[in-house]
Amino acid sequence: MNKSRLMEAVALGGRDDDGNAPILRAKGKGITAEKIIEAAKEHGIPVQQDSALVELLGQLDLNEAIPEELFEAVAEVFAFIYKLDRKMGERKTDQP
């Protein structure tokens, strides 16, 4: 029987005490994941799908700093968000 996987989501934010690593702020599966994504969209926070990264980050405890091994992957997510923010800012300034 082919069971479909539950939706999973994580939310990152802030920095650890040293100011170096982002923190895992929320994680969940199923309805909880849907609520995390819904809340992000309601607050204008970009959402990126990366099931492999979500699976790795989902193993962390809440409010735990992202381990150094995942810095590069997480940096790619933040670069994606930065580019989206810039594009959205450009669109707003282009409007009369």
- Bin the helical content: 40-55%
**What about the largest sheet?**
2 strands, antiparallel
What is the terminal separation in angstroms? 56 Å
CATH superfamily: secretion proteins EscU
Q: Structural class of the helix and strand makeup? A: alpha+beta
The strand count comes to: 2
Characterise the protein shown here.
It is a single chain. With 96 residues, the chain is an alpha+beta fold. Strands 1-2 form a two-stranded antiparallel ribbon. 7% of the residues are buried. Helices cover 45% and strands 14% of the residues. It is built from 3 helices and 2 strands, in the order ββααα. It is globular and about 35 Å long. It has a single domain (8-94), classed as secretion proteins EscU (name from scop), CATH 3.40.1690.10.
Features:
2 strands; Type III secretion system protein; alpha+beta; T3SS_substrate_exporter_C; single chain; 96 residues; T3SS_substrate_exporter
Give a concise summary.
The chain is an alpha+beta fold and about 100 residues long. The protein has helices at about 30-40, 50-55, 70-95; strands at about 10-15, 25-30. It has a single domain (about 10-95), classed as secretion proteins EscU (name from scop).
